[in-house]
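dumping these here so i dont lose them again. two proteins, back to back, each one seq then structure tokens. dont judge the mess
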Amino acid sequence: MCLFSEQTLVEGQRCAVHQPTTGLCQLFECRDRTMHRVTNTDCPQLTCADSDQITLTDRCCKVCRGHDFCAEENICAENSACVNLDGGASCSCKNGFRPLREDSAYCEGEPSITRGSADPLLQNTCDICMRIRCGK
């Protein structure tokens, strides 16, 4: 973890510092508990109107509103799902799992089994679990 401009960042997380007066941007990445400057790359040509371009906190290049951040990279582990937001992607633990860290990228637990399931195998499994937990 790194501390940068009063923010706590996890390993691999990036933060962009935009200079509104000059239009310049510097990108930093948390690696080995230290913030490192990242070399800027050329930004891709955008196909949306200027009014639909948004500036983000984790990169120097703008993106179009409605951008699919989940398609860029898989930031969520197997028990969490990627959710697109206006300014990036976030992870959400799948049903029956709980987060292991604040960003919900890693989740633990067992998927929920609902009593009264139409599947007899699931119903029996649930009944066995209830007897063990409740001592029935």
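---- next one ----
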Amino acid sequence: MSAKKSPVWKHFKITDDNPKKVQCQICQVKLAYHHSTTNLANRLKSVHPMQSVPAAATTQRQRSLDQMAKTPLPGKRKRDITDGLVTFIAMDMRPVNTVHGAGFRCLMDKLEPGYTIPNRQTITEEIDKKYTEVRGILCGIIKNSPAVSFTTDNVLI
């Protein structure tokens, strides 16, 4: 990195006698310099923390595979997964707090790392919407039927 671009150069100067050495302007210690400011930034961070520069200012790093896998999903994909999650909870009569379980979160992270599981309130609202939608469909079917029969099991204790 060029001496003119990194903010660490406010605190270091290349020595006159050796271009592979720099001198700290705070404590006058000489350090090796091989065209990278990483060790200079680390020196500031460990020995002169009040003078250190933010990590983002010293280097731009490539995203790791984990970070790339956690890329947010497109809206349609996210919506489809949330709909599937709501259907799973409703059809299998699972408690809504299933989404907070460590095992469930681990499973979802393996299946779709970029998906952020909605909170309990959002899931509950989605279940209410699904109920209203299905209720409307069933009411329409019942209204258009010539005859309807209901049976129940009545257990008295």
